[in-house]
Amino acid sequence: MSMLEVDQLKIWEERSGRVLVHGSSFRLSRGECLAVVGESGSGKSLTCRSLVRLNRKGIRQTGLIALNGLDLSMLSDKEMRRYRGRRLCMIMQNGMSAFDPSRPIGSHLQATLSVHYDWSRSEMEAKLTAAMSAVGLREPASVMRRYPHELSGGMLQRVMISLAIVLEPDVIIADEPTTALDAVTAYEVVEQFEGVRNRLGSAIIFVSHDLGVVRRIADNVLVMKDGEIVERGATRDIFACASHPYTRYLVSSKEALTRHYKQLMGGANDVEG
Ligand SMILES: Nc1ncnc2c1ncn2[C@@H]1O[C@H](COP(=O)(O)OP(=O)(O)OP(=O)(O)O)[C@@H](O)[C@H]1O
Ligand SMILES: [Mg+2]
Questions:
Q1: What is the C-alpha R_g of the chain?
Q2: pLDDT (tens digit per residue) in 149-160
Q3: Ligand 1: residues whose CB is within 6 Å?
Q4: 10 CA to centre of ligand 1 in angstroms
Q5: CATH superfamily of 32-40+80-264
Q6: CA-to-CA distance for 266 and 252, rounded, in angstroms?
Q7: Which ligand neighbours the alpha carbon of 20 most closely?
Q8: In a 10 Å sphere around its CB, with 0-12 CB exposed, 13-18 middle and 19+ buried, how is residue 99 labelled?
Q9: Residue 69 CB: number of other CB atoms within 10 A?
Q10: What is the pLDDT of residues 4-22, one digit of tens each?
């Protein structure tokens, strides 16, 4: 059985009736990483947020979203809050909107963890500190004392990733988790996701513009364009023999960029492409 099943997910703007996602269907099994790629505005973030019922007011959705066989539309908002985090954990594209601006980061993280786990304060601190170090956040204690506006977008994103690691969710939904990071940190973050997947069998939805990272972490790929899934398949097939012209365009742009980079480096560096 699939861990997550999405069937005919349609998302539209209530006021204008404009359809933003036109009936997407996809499945994820335990331990699977599904990458979602596609140009800006193609509906990747809307799709992710609809899975955790976090789209803004004025955005409506229909269609089946089932986790381990349970239709999530049966859950009340209160029950959904308990599902968010421990069952389906979303790492937002915009870190700032995910945090309470009036609270230090540490207090926000502990409040979230205490909804799901019975850990003591010191247990939580120890787990968070270890997870933050693992994603390259230096001085975790000082990060926890700070307010969201005092951290950069990349740091907030890494804080969210640390929280996801500690929460050990069934499904991690990561919306461009490596975009704001340098290549070395992105590599460390991907390793952490792989660790969670191998340890717990968590499934991962990984939205990214970085096809190098996608190639490394994803088992399967969905390609979105204008609110539709235009192609899907195993990662190696998508990279080797995409059938949709748009996917071929994405892959060839990435290859051209890699070649250009290799030329610039005088062929001295072996770039993972
Ligand atoms: N709250 C909203 N109200 C109305 N339209 C919206 C809203 N949020 C997103 N949209 C529209 O829906 C479409 C898809 O947006 P979405 O944020 O999902 O794109 P995306 O694929 O995540 O792009 P990016 O790669 O830039 O993050 C866009 O045309 C956007 O303008
Ligand atoms: Mg987005």
A1: 19
A2: 999 888 898 899
A3: 13, 20, 38, 40-46, 56, 58-59, 93
A4: 14
A5: P-loop containing nucleotide triphosphate hydrolases (3.40.50.300)
A6: 21
A7: 1
A8: buried
A9: 9
A10: 999 999 999 999 999 999 9
